[in-house]
Fold this protein.
Amino acid sequence: MAPPLVSVPMKKKKKPSLVLTLSAAGLLIGAGSAAYWLLAPRQPSWSDLLVGANIVPGDALFAVSLTTDPQQWQKLRDFGTKETQAELDKNLVQLRDRFLTNNGYNFQKDIAPWVGNEVTIAILAPATASKPPPKPVTTNEDAASDQQSMVMVLPVKNPEIAKNILAQLKTFKQGKWIDRTYQGIAIKQNQGQAGENFSAVLLDGRFLVITDHPKAAERAIDAYTSKTSLATTGGFAENFPKIANSQPFAQFYVNVPTAAKIAAASPNRPIPAQVLAQLQNNQGLAATMILEPEGIRFKGVSWLNPNSQRVLAVENKAGKMQSLVPAETLMMLSGGNLQRLWGDYVLTSQGNPLSPIAPEQIRSGIKSLTDLDLDQDLLSWMKGEFSLSLIPTTPKEGSPDDFLAGLVFMVQGSNRKLAEASLKQLDEVMKSQYQFQVQSGKVAGVPVVNWVSPYGTLTATHGWLDKDIAFLVVGAPITDKIILKPNNTLANTLPFQQTVPTEPNPTNGQFFLDVQRTVKNFPLPTLIPNQQSLLAATRSIGMTSSVSDSRSNRYDIFIGLKKVRNSTALPSPESSKSNSATP
């Protein structure tokens, strides 16, 4: 069945349309997201940009393009479980019926013969968000311009049919279509109730543009004729081609500074002025969603404002830690420079109420617990690659399992003498303040230090690998699994190789999670709605990131998914209407 978002949006109320459009885009693209980015030198072409990028106004808040290929939509429906498929089908049917069926349209008959391979939906920020100070609101039309509005761009693949498209627009139950012009361009406009004034414009016989307000249609025409579109926004044309794909399922773009301004105006959680100023350094976040045989791939890019004084340090030195942990590792997160990562977190999080933990709280917490200064005693020598891994223990017969897994932290030190002094100080704190036994020992001939709790349980072990890699194991006693340098490492396993993207390369960080084995053995906190059903549909998750240059970052994410056997077809419009009519 074809996608429900490729038609002329004959909806009845403006607000539900915007909410449903954003919800659908979020559902199709997925969550995912945190932010690493992409940039590489290459000459952009129109085919590499978001469809309609030369029409969508440059200050658009959000834009998403979706495929019109029925086979790709069926491929999406084949992923997951029966439960997740039923939930997806429910949303697709609701959207299709609202945008198409309820307005007398059938995709295969009315849309497919002329529409292109992709369509784009853009959400425009209120005009006052980018043009202060606001003018007094005097009319319903002005009031609507101070609200979010929508622009839909539908490429026309058949020029012969294009001439008849506007004439085939079906009449609303309320109101009628009238003709007007703007800058010499013909516009079909529906005269309905407030919030139902839809407009349709055919630009150069190649793009049918649908908006939910006359002002939005004029803004799209201005962007197209005066070349102030998304395609000319700072950094867009240089960065978006880096995530281009010949057959994407979806692509999206977020205008970071505009989104920040709108968030700052929220009365519930206003963003402080200093945080808003920091966010203005960022310009765009974009990604391409690609359906592959075993899952979904996201190729992402984000870039700074061209006028920003902030620059990124190009340092991609990760990629070693996955070869230091055993094949049975459930989760591994690595990065290239812990000290620099902390500095970036402080820069973007200090004073930001949206940050998960304030940097000041982390510093004071470590000082209170260990009597160590985070910056001077620890991070000062943690300038190399680091990793955090979850490694399951091997059950021993007759021995109780106090811990099912060990949490392993590794970091490449830049000054071993300073590091050993800090670790020795930490040993003294554990001994004097927490009454732990601090015992020297050996594992496979390698010197280690064990922290044993007052109750006699081995709680933690720290030591060194390869002269400059410090490690700390907490929980299950799995130190031997990393010291013995197993021949079969995580890097050599098929799940890791099939999940963690090989690009970008070189990298400044990677992430791997074996979802199936982790969910089976460990309870996870609920973070998102329908989490259990989503986890049940997922095999593994992998990510690779890099700093491309002083202005941009790149990331690739792959989500390995299960497949539904004997997937059924999406219910037809006739069957869905009859089902809804059944009491």
Notes: The longest strand covers residues 538-549.
